[in-house]
Structures are given as structure tokens and as C-alpha cells.
Amino acid sequence: MAKALLYLDENLASSIALKYVDYLSSIIELNTSIIHVVDISNAQPQKGNSRKLDEVEMIKEGEATISRLLKTEKVKYGFNGQPKIKLGNKTKEVLQELQNGSYDLFIEGHLPLSEKENFAQVVSTELYQKCPCSILYVKNLSISNIIAVLLSSDVKPEQIASTLGKMLKNSEMETELIHYDFKDVDHLEFLETPDNNPIIAETASLLAKHGLKISTIHNVVGTPEAIGDFLMSYAFVASSFSTSPSYRFEALSQTQNSVLLCKG
């Protein structure tokens, strides 16, 4: 079972993430806590009892925000404990909770704006760079019992296997490996999978050690836009975390599906 932290605000992106976790928890064993940070950067400075009263009121306001969201979305999943309401800077408070709580997974919703720059900007932030665990970047509510593992020459198979081993333990979800290379053509080309591809072989071997079986292996070439569209049929797309420019990273940016960014 993976220990997860879900960040929520009262917005559409959080609503999608909340419903997605509600669905995902029905097929994957997740122990998920909620965190919400009340931004106090614009609050008027107070002293003594006035400051304490203001903080109490802001925490109550944060609790009401998350309560409304949970009631609106009518989630069935039982979250771990009461939502954690923090005051201060989001990046600082979330990182502190992730580090102190020894989480396996950080989950956050983002509206799929179909702009690779937006994805790149988010994953290059301090929160994502310093995040001590894997990140589920939720873009859409994708209903499927199959996940995709996107591979290329720059992935780190041990990060992917370690993350999926915790998330998919005792799960009936199927796993498909997709090895991707760029080719400037107007459609995806499915090639014969070579027996001696080291990335495919290592990933399959490490996943097997975690008790995960591979149902299908695809070897494809095409543009990031084409592979991004192809990835829409899965519950989510897993790949190793990176901010270095690559066609794999661009494919993760282009897909409208949720992305699991695996860290060590």
C-alpha cells in the first residue's frame, strides 16, 4: 500500500484530482491524506491574541473550504484522518509534510491546457524538484484498469519499478510497456520489439521482482503529439522524473492523461 498526500484547493483542478483519487482507490490500495495550505502572504500583520485569533479563523476557513469540496464531489473513499490545514507558503508547508510524513506519493491536480510549457513550468518548480517522493500529476479523470509505462533511452527503470511496486501491490491492474522514439511522421508506427533492448529488458525484470506482470510491450515511433494521443486510453502514464528536454518529456507534456513521475 502506498502512502499518499493529496493537495486540494477549491478549484476545478482539485475537483478532478479528488474524483480521480476516489476512482483510483477502488482498484489500488492507497492510504491518502489531504493537505490544504491557506496563503497568508497578503494577511495584515497582527500581534498577540489578535494574531492567534486570526490564525484560528484562517484554519477554520481552510477546513470549510475542503469540507465543501468533499461534499460537492460526494467522494466514497475514506481518507486518512482529518485534512491537514496549514498556514503559510504552499511549497514550504507541503515539502515539510512530505518529508516528515515519509510519503510514497504526492498527488496534485492540474488543468490540461495542452501547452507543454505549462507542464515543464510546473515540474521545474521548487516543490516538484525537491519533492522526496513520486508525483501523480493529475490532468484528467481516466477510467481504465491498464497503466502505461513510457520508456526511452533516458529513463531510470529502478525508479519506475520501485514506485509501481508500492502502488500496484495486490492490484489487478494490467501494465503495458511502451518504448518510444521520435520520428517525424504523421502517425504512430508500431515496430517489432527487439529482444535485446536493454531498457525494456531491465524494466520488465525489475517489475517482475515486484510481482508485476507485463501484459503487452509496444515499440513505437512518431511525434510527441501522436504518442500523447495514444496514451489517453490508460489509467495513467508512468515514467521516470526528469526536467531535461527530451522527446519523452515532450510526450508527457502533450498527453491529456495523468502522469506518474517516478522518483527513487
Structure characterization notes:
The chain has 264 residues and is α/β, with parallel strands linked by helices. The protein has 2 domains: 1-139, Rossmann fold (3-Layer(aba) Sandwich), CATH 3.40.50.620; 142-264, Rossmann fold. Helices cover 39% and strands 24% of the residues. The protein has 9 helices and 11 strands. It has helices at 12-24, 48-73, 90-101, 116-123, 126-130, 157-167, 198-209, 224-230, 247-254; strands at 2-7, 30-38, 84-87, 105-109, 134-138, 146-151, 174-182, 189-191, 214-222, 237-240, 259-262. An 11-stranded mixed beta sheet has the order 3-2-1-4-5-11-10-6-7-9-8, sandwiched between helices. Helix 9 links the parallel strand 10 and strand 11. Helix 8 (224-230) packs across helix 9 (247-254). It is elongated. The two termini are 17 Å apart. 39% of the residues are buried. The mean pLDDT is 91.
What's the layout of helices and strands?
Blueprint: E1 2-7, H1 12-24, E2 30-38, H2 48-73, E3 84-87, H3 90-101, E4 105-109, H4 116-123, H5 126-130, E5 134-138, E6 146-151, H6 157-167, E7 174-182, E8 189-191, H7 198-209, E9 214-222, H8 224-230, E10 237-240, H9 247-254, E11 259-262
Parallel strand pairs: 1-2, 1-4, 2-3, 4-5, 6-7, 6-10, 7-9, 10-11
Antiparallel strand pairs: 5-11, 8-9
Helix pairs in contact: 4-9, 6-7, 8-9
